[in-house]
Write a structure and sequence with these properties.
Elements: H1 2-18, H2 28-49, H3 55-76, H4 80-108
Helix pairs in contact: 1-2, 2-3, 3-4
């Protein structure tokens, strides 16, 4: 999912800066906002699906949603501090993702898995 986001974002930015989509420069902000909104909604749906998974997975998706919302608001309101906050939250979800990966790697190599919490529902 993360690779898909970054690849699609790279395509969007390249397309906007090179005129591939025939979108005028003055409409670029709205285009990026629409892109981010679609990703916020998609990740929100996936967040709901994680409610039966251990808490760490739900927390990961909540942080991704929060980062996307902050960047969306920063883009819409042209408020750089909101975009910066989105970046800080991105560091937090990356850290949690590394923790989840390390726990899986530990279990896969014969060690103990790291604690990930109980599911919120189910």
């Amino acid at each position: 999912m993360f690779a898909t986001f970054w690849l699609s974002y790279a395509l969007l930015v390249l397309g906007l800066t090179h005129g591939w989509f025939a979108i005028p420069a003055e409409d670029a902000t709205q285009t990026v906002s629409a892109f981010l909104l679609v990703w916020v909604l998609g990740v929100a749906v996936l967040t709901g699906v994680t409610l039966r998974l251990p808490l760490a997975f739900t927390a990961l998706f909540v942080l991704v949603d929060l980062a996307l919302v902050l960047v969306l608001l920063g883009n819409e309101l042209t408020e750089p501090n909101l975009s910066k906050a989105g970046g800080y939250v991105a560091f937090a979800f990356a850290g949690l993702g590394i923790y989840l990966f390390a726990g899986s790697a530990s279990a896969a190599t014969g060690g103990r898995p790291f604690p990930v919490g109980k599911p919120l529902s189910g």
